[in-house]
Amino acid sequence: MLAVQENPANGHLITEAAPGEEEEQGESHKAEDTNDIGRLAVETRKRWRNGKTLRVKFLNGSDRVRRKVRQYANIWTQYANINFQFVDAGEAEIRINFDLNFPDGGGFWSNFGTDSLGVAANRQTMNFGGFNDQTSEETFSSIVLHEFGHALGCHHEHQSPNAHIQWNEPFVIAEMWRTQNPRWVEAKTRFNIFNWYSEKDVKATQLDGRSIMAYHVPAEWTLNGFTMDSNTQLSETDKLFIARMYPGRALAIESFNTLELRPWNVNQQKASKQFYFSKTYKSPPAIAVGLTCIDASKDLNIRVRAFADNVVKSSAMFHLDTWADSRLYSASCMWFRKPTDDKAFQIGQFNTTQDHSWESPQAKTTHQVKFKHRYSKAPKVVVWLNELNLAKGKNWRVKAHASDVTATGFKLHVDSWSDTVLFTAGAAWIAYPEDRKGVASGTFQTQDVRKATEPRTLTSGWERFPAGMFKRNPKVVMGFNSIDADCGKNLRVKLGASAVSPRRMKWHINGWSDSILYSAGASYIVFNS
């Protein structure tokens, strides 16, 4: 397993039940292979064995470019059941060169999937001929994701059997000869841009202009003015499709980790990511955000905030920030969204500063929530922490929960205890009808399986869903609702689930290194994906 700073998947991982896990209980549940799962083109005959660990070796390159390749390549492993192991010596399925004048040619390219196995062991299978220590983050992200997509067997999106782009071929051929270094001859341009892949060899659906595997297509390249922008991150359909091609990885794709943007040891107070929804709403949706991982220095106050803004019909900007002098090594969050006109689901946000100033901290805060739309009876309520501001030098203890739930509202509690100094905290809440079909929720905590007086790094347990509610693996969204950790060590805690099936999931609340986690708890909502 790669270190958490190299693989954002370690911060917010939700995985399906692996093949055979449910058979042990006398039943099997296989994810449906529908036609609307994504738009990425994958050559089915060149895929790696599912679950394989691919060894990756650098043949040259500076420390910075190597680090950036590791950082962005590992984003694929959040969604595909594939791991990358970076090795310094010995055999490797993927061998990376950074030389502009390597015998096989410079530029940016990669072998397709298992084609790498046919390349001599002393030759590269992937090339980044233009990278150097001054290369921008956007360029690293765009090109590394694209070329590692090829390494997993993904073809160019614009060459999908379903693309049907009307190319201005003479213009593009001349342009690629003029602009590329080394120059592209006509045959190479046809191979990389015009030629469609065979439908019998490629699994694909409709063209996805946001795919990382698409080239930038200027309007003058086409006869009808069709255009596509260049992309710097995986599209949502890229993620969905590669998860189906290499199943068993993340079911919950709506998450954000600061490690997607920067290494843990780069001090940066603000991190943000624009997320494009899989559908366009009639109006901006309501969003609840919850924290799922915190890695922060013990030497300064713990300050972390997860939130969304710039919410429009098709996307939102998600943030993971710290402030003042705090040192936030990494953090992650997940979110739940619903149309604002869906009266069954009501979403809200509370911060203790709505009750009292951060300069007058208090151990217990209670806020009366009044629903905008009355329910016929008391609904289910899910509560997630999404902001913490805790003093150093005192153990970090905080809990958010709902009580006295009625058809018209509930009491939201944000509490600390003992000598903890809680300057501020924020919490999101979700309410929905108790009898809503295809939706369930609940809570779990480390105390379900061990005592708080017996801290350990790894804690897990099973959570069962209502019998018969789900026919296929549901989607799970979760966030912390409580944390109790020792202030003598860095605060390191992360949340996840594995073996998600229609009947149950295995939850995980983990620390790492020398952190001391007395207890932690989480709330979740699970629904048909």
TrEMBL record:
Q: Which GO terms describe its molecular function?
A: metallopeptidase activity; N-acetylgalactosamine binding; oligosaccharide binding; polysaccharide binding; zinc ion binding
Q: Which residues form the Peptidase metallopeptidase domain?
A: 44-187
* Domain of life (superkingdom): Eukaryota
GO cellular component entries: cell surface; protein complex involved in cell adhesion
Xref: InterPro entries: Galactose-binding_lectin (IPR052487), H-type_lectin_dom_sf (IPR037221), H-type_lectin_domain (IPR019019), MetalloPept_cat_dom_sf (IPR024079), Peptidase_Metallo (IPR006026)
Under SUPFAM superfamilies, the record lists: Agglutinin HPA-like (SSF141086), Metalloproteases ('zincins'), catalytic domain (SSF55486)
A single GO BP term for this record reads: proteolysis
- Which region ranges are annotated with the description Disordered? 1-35
Q: What is this protein called?
A: Peptidase metallopeptidase domain-containing protein
